[in-house]
Design goal:
The protein is an alpha+beta fold and about 180 residues long. Strand 3 and strand 4 form a beta hairpin. The longest helix has 18 residues.
Length: about 180
């Protein structure tokens, strides 16, 4: 008889009733006596790759992404450099040309590796870059660029306004709301 892998009790056959016929369950496939025993056994059961089989150091390095054990230090640094620059190349098959639209807010983002205020993923909002080119310097993080027609993808210089602070920008929106109320 088979025993439960969790508690060690002997496994018993369960019989299911389907209409008038009784049939046994797939007994050979069962490993646990109950759902609770199965849950206890599965809880925290992530085994390292090495358990149960022998794997060479090179293969383990490949599984973990460790190129030094596989190729040596010099070759590993070359491979890492190629992998890190592959998606930077605009001619890469999966490249979007360095321009994407920010999913949450709708701004156009441009890849800029050397910008002092780039994000963690090396993108900068395009309207900020357009304004920087126009005034000839980098914008401070406190400065706000406003889209006059409220279309966040329209980054023509005629459609952009620069505010020195967020409070100035909020006052501008307050004036616009006030004008709309007076027009009605």
């Amino acid at each position: 008889m088979n025993k439960c892998l969790s508690c060690g009790e002997e496994l018993t056959r369960k019989v299911f009733k389907s209409g008038k016929k009784e049939r046994p369950c797939a007994f050979k496939k069962r490993k646990y006596c109950s759902v609770q025993c199965r849950a206890k056994a599965k809880q925290g059961s992530r085994r390292p790759i090495e358990v149960g089989r022998k794997i060479s150091q090179a293969k383990m390095g490949k599984l973990r992404g460790d190129y030094e054990t596989q190729y040596g230090k010099e070759r590993a640094s070359e491979i890492k450099k190629k992998l890190s620059t592959a998606h930077r190349n605009i001619k890469h098959w999966n490249s979007k040309g360095g321009r994407v639209i920010e999913p949450s807010k709708g701004y156009v983002l441009v890849k800029s590796h050397d910008h002092p205020y780039k994000g963690a993923n090396e993108y900068v909002r395009e309207h900020r870059l357009v304004m920087e080119r126009h005034i000839g310097r980098h914008l401070l993080p406190t400065e706000i660029v406003h889209h006059i027609n409220n279309d966040r993808t329209d980054n023509r210089i005629e459609n952009l306004m620069l505010f020195s602070s967020n409070s100035e920008h909020a006052k501008h929106h307050g004036r616009i709301k006030k004008e709309k109320r007076n027009d009605k």
